[in-house]
């Protein structure tokens, strides 16, 4: 059944989850390498001072956490924005046969409008930029969870919060 405002049947929750896992692997592997490089460059290891015998602390761990959060957040936002702007699909969505379209929009080969793709990517991954702040990072994690779970009880369009802000839905294309 196609709900009002949807040009095609809505994607199932599990299709969206598998697509996000595929995208997570695609962006996660290079990110692990970047994280290792940032950590190796910025963090000095803990150990013992040979002269005094006193344990020394790690330094640069906070700076590494900030840099990693900022780089990862920017990379995730850029990936989501560029892919949706180009064709309305990330690699995971292509593999799962689903596409992001504006509510009441069409299924043409063009991507999402720039402002729509920016809103969607910003709400979805923007909180990642704040993960380095101790309490705020915890709240950002809760928001991220509620954001993606929202589609499970949202009726009739099964929109996550990032879909609501951008006025988009995810539909099946094959």
TrEMBL record:
Keywords: Cell membrane, Membrane, Transmembrane, Transmembrane helix. One of its GO terms (cellular component) is plasma membrane. InterPro entries: Pra-immunoreactive (IPR051791), RDD (IPR010432). The chain crosses the membrane at residues 21-48, 60-79, 129-153. It is a multi-pass membrane protein. It comes from the Bacteria. PANTHER family: MEMBRANE PROTEIN, PROLINE-RICH ANTIGEN HOMOLOG-RELATED. This is RDD domain-containing protein. It comes from Planotetraspora silvatica. The lineage of its organism: Bacteria, Bacillati, Actinomycetota, Actinomycetes, Streptosporangiales.
